[in-house]
C-alpha cells in the first residue's frame, strides 16, 4: 500500500533537516571552542537576542542555558532600541541570531556591544553579512535549503540554530561539572523536578521509623510495626545498623504456618535492599518496581535514617 502523501512530506522535511544538522556538526571548529570559553570566562550573563523566528530560538536558548547553570537572559532586539539596552552590562556576552545576518533591528544592539567592548557572538549563515562581520566570534550555520522551499519560511535554519544553541548549553554545563542535583534546583516542579528528587527528599525521617532491636520478642515487634503504620519493621544490631526487616506479608506467612516464633529475628528478611539518601528517588522507584516491594529503608553508615514507601513516591509525582 502506497504511503500517504503526508508521511512522504514529513519524511522529506526530516531528512532534509537531518542532512543540514550533519553538515553543522562536521563544520564545528575552534570558533565554537572560543565561544564556550568566552561565556565561561564572563562574569555576567549571556544576552540572547534576535527577531522573528530567530528571536523565538534565542529565547529558547536563553531558557535552556539558564536551566543548566549558565546565567542567560533574552532581550528583544526592538525593545533594546527603546531602553532595554540598559539591561546589558559590560560583563555580559551577547549572542545574536539572524539567518541572513542583515536584520536591521539588530543594528543598535551590535553598535552597543562594540561601543562598550561587550563580546559579541553571532549565529548566522552568512559570514559576510553585517552580523557576520561585526561578531567577535562567528558561529556559522550551513546555508541549507529551508524545508518549505516555496515560501522559504524558517524551518531548517531555525532547527540548526536550536541545535547549535543546545550544543553550546551542553558544552557549558559539562565544562562546569553541572550535575543532576544542581539541575534539580532549577526544576523543582513537575515531573522533571520529581524525577530529580533524592531519597533524602522524600523519605520519612528517623524519628518516624518503625524499629526494634535484634532479639526483641515477636509480639514487641508486631506492636512496633502496628504503631507506625508503614507495614514494615526494621530490626537493628546493637550498634544501630540494620540487621533485617519484617513486612506484613512476612507476618502473615509465619502465622499461617502455625510454627512457634520466639523473637522478631525468626521472621525477618536479612540483607534487604536499601537506599542511600543521595540516591535519586527515580532509581528507588525503579528498584521497587523490579523487586516488587513497596518499602525501602534509607541508610547512612549502615544505620536507618529514613524510610520510603511507594505511596511517598506517588505523592511526589514520580509514578
Features of the shown structure:
single chain; 319 residues; alpha/beta; 2 domains; four-stranded mixed sheet; 14 helices; 16% strand
Compile the SSE list and pairings.
Elements: H1 5-27, H2 30-41, E1 46-49, H3 52-67, E2 72-74, H4 77-80, E3 93-97, H5 107-115, E4 120-124, H6 130-134, E5 137-140, H7 156-175, H8 180-186, H9 190-195, H10 199-202, E6 204-205, E7 211-213, H11 218-228, E8 232-236, E9 242-247, H12 248-257, E10 269-270, H13 281-291, E11 295-300, E12 303-309, H14 310-315
Parallel strand pairs: 1-2, 1-3, 3-4, 4-5, 7-8
Antiparallel strand pairs: 6-12, 8-9, 9-10, 11-12
The CATH architecture classification of the largest domain is 3-Layer(aba) Sandwich
Number of individual domains: 2
Strand content: 15-25%
Parts with pLDDT < 50 across at least 5 consecutive residues: none
Mean pLDDT across all amino acids:
86
What can you tell me about this protein's structure?
It is a single chain. The protein has helices at residues 5-27, 30-41, 52-67, 77-80, 107-115, 130-134, 156-175, 180-186, 190-195, 199-202, 218-228, 248-257, 281-291, 310-315, and strands at 46-49, 72-74, 93-97, 120-124, 137-140, 204-205, 211-213, 232-236, 242-247, 269-270, 295-300, 303-309. It has 319 residues and is α/β, with parallel strands linked by helices. The chain folds into two domains: 5-178, Glucose-6-phosphate isomerase like protein, domain 1 (Rossmann fold, 3-Layer(aba) Sandwich); 199-315, CBS-domain (Roll), CATH 3.10.580.10. The protein is elongated.
